[in-house]
Amino acid sequence: MDNSDFINNLTSILDTQGIITDPKEKISYDTDWREIFHANSLAVVRPKTTEQVAEIVKLCNDYQIAIVPQGGNTSLVGGASPTPDKKQIVLSLNRMNKIRDINTIDYTMTVEAGLVLEEAQNIALKSDLYLPIMISSQGSAQIGGIIATNAGGNNTLRYGNTREFILGLEVVTAKGEILNILRHLRKDNTGYDLKQLFVGSEGTLGIITAAVIQLHAKPKSTEVALCALADIHQALKLLRLFHNYNPAALQAFEYISSTGMQLVRSNIEDIYFPLETETSTYILVELALPEKGDKLKALLETVLEEAFEKGIVLDAVLAESETQRQNLWKLREEQAESQKRAGANIKNDVSVSISAIPEFIVRATQACQETYPGIRVAPFGHLGDGNIHFNLVQPEHEDPDEFMQKSHNLMNIVSKIVFDLHGSFSAEHGVGQLKNYMMSEWKSETELDLMKKIKKALDPDNLLNPGKIFPKS
Fold it and tell me: For the chain (length 473 residues), average pLDDT per consecutive 10?
């Protein structure tokens, strides 16, 4: 059996739009968003039904061809890209994008894996419901990939990671069986909660094809403010103030460093910076309530007034319209893109306890600058839940390839500090193929052995997204 037989059999399962073999057309699927990882897949397959996915998986079993499940291909750790050491296909779910059901009584929606997150959000809003998973790539990231990576985002502080939203799943197993656990139940204690095995598994245990998602009440009032603080230590005091007044109203508490703010202002078009104060630390805070009125604005003004009196906040601006709200959020949401435009960059998606964030940022910044003079340290992220994207941008006018050759060394420097603070080297991006070498150092032998046993039990031939999560043996 050769590759041509395999491709012919694939073609018999799919329509003419369902398979791509032309090398030029495959490039966008075979290359990750950061353009770090690239391998030549045998084909890109684009099924339209769960049954087609199952048939493809069975065929791959027959030929021992590995499968790389792919959603919007927005992974920052090479989690949805093929690897060069095994024959693989990319299985794109982008044509499986239907809304199967929306229930305004149960506050649920059942969607296929290829539906783009932003489209799902908009559909929920039309029914006066709210899907609060908010990530920078929501205009292209797809539901299946978001579940497979247990994505976090700006609203994790209030609503939790994606795991908290998943009531049921439809999954194609490594042997091509269709596992239908599309239940709408909040409570179901009947044995192992199998769906949670697949959430955050990065496509290594099964291929998610559909999900039942828990929705929430749509906020009726929202207030946003951008605050300038003297240093990162003041951020914890500001967070404590908001918790003291009304923790239920706090929806997002996002940190932007001075370097990050400078990069977004320099590299992104139509950016409006409304503050008069230039400082080292900025906080974007969003409050939301499911009720109308001026209560929320009064709360925000009261907290900020006390923060000014105590010297916690140096300057602040409140959004007075939806346009102004979007402009303030653009300063935060364009951080990753602005850093990409500024040059080669190294991403550290880490979490530590909230109380340890100032120590982490100070120590990691100093360590990186001492190791690599001229490096631009541009941390930002979800300070309210302890997740900081500690990103490092190449010095200006330096060769990007030379800078990226030092990526593992710099990641290890940052990770050592995270380890000392009992944190995690991956808070929400996953492990992928970028950081799998860290697993043996961070996971105990017992923990890693149990994970490998689960992988072996569900995917004995290692055909599902090989080379991801687990360190190379």
Answer: 86 93 95 91 97 98 97 94 93 97 97 98 96 93 97 94 97 98 95 96 98 96 97 98 95 97 96 95 96 91 97 97 96 94 95 98 97 96 96 94 93 96 95 94 95 98 96 78
Best CA proximity match to 123, nearest among 100, 93, 92: 100
Q: How far apart are CA 280 and CA 277, in angstroms?
A: 10
Closest to 52 measured CA to CA, from 19, 17, 14 = 14
Question: Residues near 10 by Cβ (< 8 Å), separated by ≥ 6?
Answer: 19, 43, 45, 56, 59, 89
* pTM score of the predicted model: 0.93
Alpha-carbon distance of 149 to 346, in angstroms, equals 20
In the β-sheet with 178-181, what is the strand arrangement from edge to edge? 99-103, 108-112, 207-214, 166-172, 178-181
C-beta contacts of 457-460 below 8 A and 24+ residues apart? 458/173, 458/174, 458/197, 458/205, 458/206, 459/174, 459/204, 459/205, 459/206, 460/174
